[in-house]
User: What shape does this take?
Amino acid sequence: MASVEELLLPEIIRNAKKAYWIESVTALDPLRGRNPSLAMMGGFLWRTGAALFSLSRLMKAKRAKIRPEDVNAALAKKKGPVSKFIARHYRHFNAAALMDAAKGYETHLQKGGKMLVTMAGAMSTAELGLSLAEMIRRGKVHAIVCTGANLEEDIFNLVAHDYYERVPGYRDLTPADEQALLDRHMNRVTDTCIPEAEAMRRIEKAVLEEWVAADRKGERYFPHEFMYKILRGGKLKKAYQIDPKNSWLLAACEKNLPITVPGWEDSTLGNMYAAAVIRGEVKKVHTVRTGIEYMTTLADWYVKTAKPLRGGTGSVGFFQLGGGIAGDFPICVVPMLQQDLQRPDIPLWGYFCQISDSTTSYGSYSGAVPNEKITWGKLGVNTPSFIIESDATIVVPLIFAWLLGE
Assistant: This one.
């Protein structure tokens, strides 16, 4: 609904034009000098009318010469049906932000940039590997930062997919229902239950052998490197229950993709590792390398990879799914290098997109808008930045479909 000011503005402008006419007539009136009040009022009305008349000219809408939907249709012309659907229907609000973020990602790669993807939440249990694995194979993802849960849950799904159970009515479960799931060793993640024996204990057995072997040799590896070892060893191949091409971790392993797993201790395998240390099976607690070592390794990768692109932005983009430690840990590598190591030559992140259903309130990091990151030395004034306030399990496959030309 229009405001009162908007409704009255045309009438004000008409009266102002009349006032302009009164001032003109008054100027010709030989009695004007004997009527100073009228002259003063006429002058005021003339100036007001002139200003509003100019304002009315400025406020006229201009017809767009190039329509966004036409640009998007042209970009999608050589792509597949999913991309064409997005270009046609995703025009406003979060849908438009999705479209803009996808185009920005594509432009960043076309300029020669690289992309780091971060994953919080339960993206692996959501089977993001169905699209992320192909993004990795096609060279559209160059590094990953994820929680320990996302690292392990992709491989859990790889070997135990057929034993997973969906619980569509999870909101209606009673405490007794939840206990019944626990009694069956079915660990629920929203509407999906992960089977403990077929998934977690199977991987525990395989990785424990690697932990113990490394510990006895005095060797140390990162959590993701132990996962690469068991995948490359081939012991799990007979247990695969999904098409291997749909495992993002397997695709990353094949590419030897850099992976960073901050806070790995807060995961199922992290707990199992702590238990192995307590039992004495692993003698040295640092056989699995730590989070600080992950930061120094990430910093080394960033220094070698990040270069200024055309337009002055950095060559490494940041595509963030959710928030939390998976997002905050890696983005801080830039201010750490610039401020703590006094390296002002290090480029800022060259692209930023955050997909999260968190909103900006209560000091939330996950819901903070990109501009806040400028104050921390993470992004620049001209960094292409996007925020999509939606469910990543819906949004990300669509963006990846656009980038893959589907």
